Amino acid sequence: MPTDPVCGMYVDEKTADLKLVRENRTYYFCNTSCLQSFAAPEKVLHELRQKLAVGWPLSVATLVLTYFWNVPDWPYLAFAMATVVQVYVAQSFYRGTWDAFRNRAANMDVLIAVGTTVAYLYSAAALFLPSRLPQIFYFDASAVIATAILTGSYLEHLTREKARGALRELQALLPSTVLVVREGKEVEVPVAEVQVGDRFVVKPGGRVPADGIVREGRSTTDESLVTGESLPVDKRPGSPVIAGTINGEGRLIGEATKVGEDTVLSQIGALLAEAETSKVPMQQLADRIASVFTPVVLAIALLAGLGWFFLGGAPFNVALLIFVTVAITACPCAFGLATPAAIISGTGRAARDGVLFKGRDSIEKASDIDLVMTDKTGTLTAGKPRLTDLLPFGKLSEREMLAFSVGLESASEHPLARAVVERAREEHVEVPRVSDFRSEPGVGLQGSIAGRKVSIVTPQSLGPSALATAELRAGVEKMAEAGKACSVLLLDGQPAGVLGFFDASAQGVREAVATLKRDGVEVVMLTGDNERAAREVASAVGIEKVRASLKPAQKLEALSEARAAGKHVAYVGDGVNDAPALVAADVGIAIGAGAEVAREAGGVILMRSDFGSVALALRIARRTVRKVRLNLLWALGYNSVLLPVAAGLLVPFLGFGAYDYLPLIGAGAMGLSSTSVLLNSFSLRWVHLEGPPGAPPSRVQVPTVRPVSAG
Question: Is the pTM of this model over 0.85?
Answer without folding.
Answer: no
